[in-house]
Specification:
The chain has about 525 residues and is α+β, with helices and mostly antiparallel strands. Helix content is about 45%, strand content about 10%. It is globular and about 75 Å long. The N and C termini lie far apart (about 85 Å).
Length: about 525
């Protein structure tokens, strides 16, 4: 606020009337000027403002049901977890049984699949219950307790829960033997329910429940002898034993269990019913059987000694030839790890390898093949690897273009081993048996028939030891998986596991099932 201005006008009696008039005029003038000054400094009269109309919030879209929303938004949101049995990164793309099943279901609905990977297994169940995704596809076992919370689709796989220990330590033979060591499991898995039931019969049974690590990481701890035992589903240990060959199954701790997708319980069953119908369809048309074979069918042949030898050769032999595999793969448009897997199956990465039939070198090429490829010295690593890569590429190109990956590669591998003519005979037999000649799962069952007179007598190319290419392909698939795992960020995986070991200074890390930890 402006301060009041006081004008002091001295009037003397000596002044004449004329002077008085002058002062009065002067005083009025100052008042007038002062008034003008105050007006000019006054805030201007506010003009009439046009009030902006607030933008109304978007009207929420209401869908008739969950299935309609998924189709309208073109997005299917799924909770899963990183695991060789569910969802992982393979040599050139994402893979895993759950990934393949969900992708197939999304394609069936004509939408895109969006995967969410929570930090812990427990969060998968929590977020499913909270409705933060459409459903969970994470290798979840159907249990009585979970059926109180979730709706499960028809099962897609059977497993058993198994106690895992490490070779070189005493094998537990029954549940009561577990009291003699440290047993650790993952929080909120079905394994917890299994142990709780056993504890009613064996009160002294105790275990640690880890809030942060998953089963794969606990298997690593068993392998490193940091804990004595853990529990894994049979499908998990089947795949993980290839990476940790010293891990062994002590015994089954459960009867057969079933895996399925889990939906939040709701009155809206539209998407759940669509998923249930989808599983019914892929069981009927054998697609599910083919997917199970793709992920587990190649894991049975290589035993403990073979895995251990492979791990030794990864460090002692592969480094000598890795650059050659990479260069040859780049030249012929292949994955170098596939070439390395072929070479390991052929020669165990031994450049001087010679078979009784005269094939030689890292890629074990026949003399006829070497002559066709212009190879002068089959024992020369570069000539052998480049020749093998070129020869495999030729095999790959001969496979009918309509056969998709990965079956296309498995067919090419079989022809690399047994010859294209015998492979074609097996495909013809497959068709005669009413199966699909373009599916590896069907052809691999026909190849062994080439050694039976009933079949090879009618085959164009005659007799073949048809079991050999089946084992050959399965072994290479296993070696390829191991190479993908080995060349991944294994060091980071181990570093992530180590800081999360149970420590007494962090009591919130693990939940103890009883008051005492076994000494």
């Amino acid at each position: 606020m402006r301060q009041a201005i006081h004008y002091h006008v001295p009037i003397s009696t000596e002044h004449n009337s004329k002077s008085l008039v002058k002062y009065i005029v002067f005083f009025l003038l100052l008042i007038s000027l002062s008034a003008c000054d105050m007006q000019t400094q006054s805030p201007p009269t506010s003009p009439k403002h046009t009030q902006k109309t607030a933008t109304p919030p978007p009207t929420p879209i209401h869908y008739a049901n969950q299935l309609e929303r998924v189709k309208a938004t073109k997005t299917l949101t799924i909770l899963t977890r990183y695991d060789p049995t569910t969802y992982y990164e393979s040599s050139d793309s994402l893979a895993g049984l759950e990934y393949d099943l969900v992708t197939l279901f999304a394609k069936h609905l004509k939408v895109e699949a969006k995967f969410i990977i929570p930090k812990t297994f427990a969060e998968i169940l929590q977020k499913t219950q909270a409705g933060e995704a459409d459903f969970a596809a994470a290798g979840l076992t159907i249990t009585q307790a979970r059926q109180q919370q979730f709706l499960f689709t028809p099962p897609y796989h059977k497993i058993t829960e198994q106690v895992i220990y490490r070779t070189g330590t005493k094998r537990p033979k029954k549940p009561s033997d577990l009291v003699n060591g440290i047993l650790e499991i993952v929080k909120d898995t079905s394994h917890v329910e299994t142990l709780q039931r056993l504890q009613q019969k064996i009160p002294q049974l105790q275990w640690l429940t880890n809030h942060f690590l998953d089963t794969d990481e606990l298997l690593y701890l068993v392998n490193e002898r940091l804990i004595d035992y853990t529990i894994a589903d049979s499908n998990q240990i089947t795949l993980m034993r290839r990476f940790y060959p010293k891990l062994n199954v002590a015994f089954n701790i459960s009867t057969s269990r079933q895996l399925a997708w889990a939906f939040k319980k709701s009155d809206d069953l539209s998407l759940y019913q669509a998923a249930s119908s989808f599983f019914k369809k892929i069981k009927q048309n054998k697609t599910l059987e083919q997917l199970l074979e793709r992920h587990y069918g190649h894991t049975r042949n290589i035993k403990y000694v073979g895995h251990c030898t492979f791990h030794l050769h990864l460090h002692s032999r592969l480094p000598q030839y890795q650059e050659l595999f990479e260069a040859a793969a780049q030249k012929w448009g292949l994955d170098w790890r596939l070439l390395a897997a072929i070479s390991y199956q052929e020669s165990h990465w031994n450049k001087r390898a010679v078979s009784p039939t005269g094939v030689k070198g890292l890629m074990m090429l026949t003399k006829a093949t070497a002559d066709q490829l212009g190879i002068k010295d089959r024992t020369d690593p570069q000539e052998s690897i480049y020749g093998g890569a070129r020869y495999f590429k030729q095999r790959l190109k001969k496979i009918p273009a309509r056969i998709p990956q990965p079956d296309r590669t498995w067919f090419a591998l079989a022809s690399y081993n047994v010859g294209f003519g015998h492979l074609e005979d097996a495909r013809i037999i497959t068709q005669k048996r009413g199966k699909n000649p373009d599916k590896w799962i069907d052809v691999k069952r026909s190849l062994p028939l080439l050694s039976k007179k009933e079949w090879f007598s009618k085959a164009k190319h005659g007799y073949a030891r048809g079991t050999e290419p089946v084992i050959y392909v399965d072994n290479i698939r296993s070696y390829l998986d191991l190479l993908i795992w080995h060349t991944g960020n294994k060091e980071q995986e181990e570093a992530n596991a180590m800081p999360l070991l149970p420590q007494t200074s962090h009591p919130d890390l693990v939940e103890i099932s009883t008051d005492m930890i076994p000494e």
